[in-house]
Amino acid sequence: QKEVEQDPGPLSVPEGAIVSLNCTYSNSAFQYFMWYRQYSRKGPELLMYTYSSGNKEDGRFTAQVDKSSKYISLFIRDSQPSDSATYLCAMSDILTGGGNKLTFGTGTQLKVEL
Amino acid sequence: EPEVTQTPSHQVTQMGQEVILRCVPISNHLYFYWYRQILGQKVEFLVSFYNNEISEKSEIFDDQFSVERPDGSNFTLKIRSTKLEDSAMYFCASSEARQGGADTQYFGPGTRLTVL
Questions:
Q1: Which residue from A77, B25, B62, B106 has the fewest beta carbons nearer than 10 Å?
Q2: Residues whose CB is less than 8 angstroms from the CB of residue B40 and which lie 6 or more positions away in sequence, other chains included
Q3: Contact assessment for residue B64 and residue B81, using Cβ atoms and an 8 Å cutoff
Q4: Residue-level pLDDT at B116
Q5: How confident is the model at residue B2 (pLDDT cuts 50, 70, 90)?
Q6: Cα separation of A46 and A28, whole Å?
């Protein structure tokens, strides 16, 4: 079983739609969860990070973590064509001396159509 | 806004040659990382570096790879004898490594390495 599973898509939605992106994971040691956005041939750009179970909102983006189900989600409200990108979930276990490796999902390719 | 920078953006090399990829992390960050992404695959951790030494490395990071912080601003990844399968995007990242807080890593734009 892969440590982090993410549907690669592609996912195509009309402008203004609510987008739901998801990842599941198997390693119960993961405590920190991030969502990155990656445009073609560019570096991952941090969107959201969460630590605890529950929801965290930032503008049109909401990150949700359910540690009991080992399931995380990213919701995008009022999606725009500029949201078209690949969305990567990433996670790491508890910090020891500070800093830690991230384990990424494969990324979901999203296209928001006009 | 501070950002991680990487040079060159694209490096083409012959198999067996040595390459050095360069990164300038965000200035107040203490942890530095290299990741790679083979075309069409996921981003994979290579190595983390803290206090002038490797703190963790993956199975990919074998004896052909080395990292160095030659001065107060640069962080480099050297591949001693490149192989065809080393062709990938290489991303540098850095983080503040605040004790008791999330290790939020910020990525550079990447160096595309092509080995012929």
A1: B62
A2: none
A3: yes
A4: 97
A5: confident
A6: 23
Nearest chain B residue to A51, by CA: B102
Residue-wise pLDDT for B29-70, tens only, equals 989 999 999 998 999 999 999 889 998 899 999 999 999 998
With CB atoms and an 8 Å threshold, state whether B110 touches A51: no
Angstroms from A66 CA to nearest CA on chain B: 18
CB count in 10 Å sphere of residue A77: 13
Q: Rounded to a whole number, what is the largest CA-CA distance in chain B?
A: 45
Hey, is the C-beta of B60 within 8 angstroms of any chain A C-beta?
Answer: no
How many whole angstroms separate alpha carbon B102 and alpha carbon A92?
Answer: 9
**Shortest CB distance from B31 goes to which of A90, A99, A107?**
A99
Instruction: Choose the mutation target among A50, A56, A102, A103 for the interface with B, i.e. most B CBs under 10 Å.
Output: A102
Section B81-96 average pLDDT = 95
Q: What is the CA radius of gyration of chain A?
A: 14
Answer whether A107's CB lies under 8 Å from A88's CB: yes
- Using one digit for the tens of pLDDT, what is the confidence trace for A14-51? 999 999 999 999 998 888 899 999 998 789 999 998 88
Strands A71-76 and A19-25: antiparallel
- Which two three-digit tokens encode residue A102? 């991230």
d(CA A25, CA A2): 8
- A49 pairs with which residues across the strands? A34
pLDDT band at A12 (very low <50, low <70, confident <90, very high): very high
